[in-house]
Amino acid sequence: MASLVPKATKAAPAPPKNILLLGWRPEWNGDAHRFMNRINDISESLEPGSTVTCVNLMEIEAFHHFVTGTCGFGGDGKSGFHLLDSEEFPDIGKVLLWHHSADPIKYDAVRPVFDVPSRKPNTAICKCSHTTKPFIL
């Protein structure tokens, strides 16, 4: 006799998400560990293949230096930044980190991020401070 109870099926994984991280917290300047914790916290609930695009006033070269030097990411601004095999930040490896240098409160300046189909944002996180002064190393 056939069972009337359907067999449990494994749920398909959620699709990757594209997150905007708007602004820059001043405390990240002197404590890269706090920045890494923030990215790891964001990454924790994301599926592999997700992206986090940081939109802030930091110059492109300064952001590149910060994430590849101080934070230990690999990659570049053209193909994104990645962190592999980190015991301390295990979830960061699931995401590709991007940067867009712009004032995050000016929509016209942020608009180009929405025009990249593979990174079109699903969610924005605005817990960061806004400053008119760019980050300087």
- Relative helix content: 25-40%
Number of beta strands: 6
Structurally, the number of domains stands at 1
The proportion of strand residues reads: 15-25%
Low-confidence stretches: 132-137
The coarse overall form would be: globular
Q: For the report, how would you describe the main beta sheet?
A: 4 strands, parallel
Gyration radius, to the nearest Å? 18 Å
The whole-number mean of residue pLDDT values reads 85
Give helix and strand order, one letter per element, not per position.
EHHEHEEEHE
Distance between the termini: 72 Å
Strand order of the largest sheet: 5-2-1-6
What structural category characterises the helix and strand content? alpha/beta
Q: DSSP helix count?
A: 4
Structure report:
Helix content is 26%, strand content 20%. The chain has one domain. The strands form two sheets. Strands 5-2-1-6 form a four-stranded parallel sheet. The C terminus is likely disordered. With 137 residues, the chain is α/β, with parallel strands linked by helices.
